[in-house]
Amino acid sequence: MSTEAIAHRQKEAEMTQRPDEWLLEQGLEPDKLGLRNQSDIKINLSSPQTADANETELKLRPGAEEDDPSFVVKEERKGWHGYVEWEDYPEKKAKAHKRFQRFKFPPPPEFQLGPLPPTNPVLEGVRWKLWHKAIGGALENVPEESWDIVVEEKHPGMLHLLQFPYNGEAPKGLLIKDPITPNELHFVRNHGGIPTIEPEAFDLRIDGLVNDPKRLTLADLQNEALFPRMEKLVTLQCSGTRRFEQIQEFAGEGDEMINAPWAEGAISTAKWVGVSLKKVIKYCGGLKDGAKHLEFYGADSYFKGGELMNYVVSVPWSKVKANEVMLAWEMNGKPLPRIHGAPLRAVVMGYIGARSVKWLYRVKATPTPSRAPVQSREYLYFQQQYGKHNQLPWLGIQIQEMPVSSAIMSPWQKEVVVHNGAIEVEGKPQHNTALPLHISTSY
Ligand SMILES: Nc1nc2c(c(=O)[nH]1)N[C@H]1C(S)=C(S)[C@@H](COP(=O)(O)O)O[C@H]1N2
Ligand SMILES: [Mo]
Questions:
Q1: Cα of 211 to ligand 1 centre, how many Å?
Q2: 344 CA → ligand 1 middle, Å
Q3: Could you list the residue ranges forming a coiled coil in this record (predicted)?
């Protein structure tokens, strides 16, 4: 070999550049770009599902206190599977907190920094699963049982963003097919497991500042001699919808909650049948002086900051008075699916989805908005000036109404369109409208 050829070979061997280097430098493959870490923070990008892929087993904290074996989480009502009452029993909440403190849980996923895994379910929810295992008893098998219900009740084409608690949306093509979203394709946003409540065993408790507190069975609510039937076409929108875009476009500035990376699909329309909550309150003798809000209690168990609770939020009486809050048991002509809140849920028209409480078992009239974390510490608007790290819950405004969101659903993001002078563009239902945006436009 000539010296020239040898030198050439050596030079070739020195080429350590990755072949797609120029694509990366030009930002053409942003998801492969990685992270320029100029801090002391150790960031694990290899496992976006948990910060450490090996930490999927339940581990005791070193020096953990002895467990109290007499504390077993039980279901207290026959025919109510997966329902544990927390709000009535502060001592029980305290015991759950103590048990919870014995364990060391893996840190939250870092998917906002690393690429999302190309899997369906996208994220597994390892921490939520471990929280259930740690508390045990009636909640131990809830993650597996809830996933079985997803498989049974949802369309096989769903995009599972988070396996547990289950969060899923329909792919764009299926979502815009019909103005009314079929039940199997309606998006799902859960904060915990899915309770299964037998309709015959169910009752709704109405208490707090009402003149005549009552428990109403499903048959009572469905009795047209007591309450006129209400039927409404309502578009539900989760306030987290399009979070993924927000993360991509405004990294570090916006909503990077360790939750479902929603695309445009956390919005769906259904025909709901039920009764107006206003009539139910009237049937309970109306509100007492000073009552201004209605607190809604969901039967699922929600883990937040090392505490266990039921899913609780509130809406103002003015919203109820306008007949814009329905207690619904039917969805698109079928009994409410378990995953959408059977046997009874709230449907709050024109508010963020979070107020439409599923597995609704209690309505309590109160003087103030709910202090529960989902109402008072989450779903808040902040003035931009506060800056992300100065946002204290009491500086926020609780989100009820939410601006309209509309999106082009076809063509897709960054898709190249070859056309003959006219581009076909399709849209999706807007909040509060029943009809999809379906436009054809030319340039
Ligand atoms: N009990 C209960 N109700 C709930 C939730 C929940 O986690 N638990 N999630 C809320 C949120 S954030 C939304 S967006 C809607 C979603 O309703 P869907 O799953 O029927 O689409 O339910 C709301 N009601
Ligand atoms: Mo939501």
A1: 29
A2: 12
A3: none
CB atoms inside a 10 Å sphere around CB 56 = 15
Q: Which structural domain range is residue 288 located in? A: 59-406
Residue 391: its pLDDT value, please?
80
DSSP string, 129-172: HHHHHHH-GGGTTHHHHHHHHHHHHS-TT-EEEETTTTEEE--H
Q: Is residue 44 part of a domain?
A: no
Does any domain span residue 86? yes
Q: What is the pTM of this model?
A: 0.89
Same-domain pairing of 434 and 372 = no
Q: How many domains does the chain have?
A: 2
Residue 239 CA to ligand 2 centre (angstroms): 5
pLDDT of 9 reads: 76
Q: How do residues 154-177 score in pLDDT, each as one tens digit? A: 999 999 999 999 999 999 999 988
Cα–Cα distance, 355 to 173 (Å, whole number) = 28
Name the closest ligand to CA 236: 1
Domain co-membership, 278 together with 308: yes
Give the HSE-up count for residue 332: Cα atoms under 13 Å, Cβ half-sphere.
15
User: Which of 204, 261, 207, 212 lies closest to 238 in space, CA to CA?
Assistant: 261
If we measure between CA atoms, which residue out of 196, 217, 336, 219 comes closest to residue 271?
A: 336
49: in domain = no
Q: Which residues line ligand 1 (CB under 6 A)?
A: 186-191, 236, 238, 298, 300, 311, 340, 353-354, 356-359
Measured CA to CA, the distance from residue 222 to residue 228 in angstroms comes to: 9
Mean pLDDT of 271-299: 98
> What amino acid occupies position 17?
Q
Q: Name the band, by pLDDT with cuts 50, 70 and 90, for residue 152.
A: very high
The position carrying tokens 């309150």 is 281
Judgement on whether residues 201 and 115 belong to the same structural domain of the protein:
yes
Within this chain, do residues 374 and 423 fall inside the same structural domain, yes or no? no
Which pair of tokens denotes residue 186?
């309606």
CA-based nearest residue to 187, from 263, 295, 294, 100: 263
Q: Is residue 13 part of a domain?
A: no
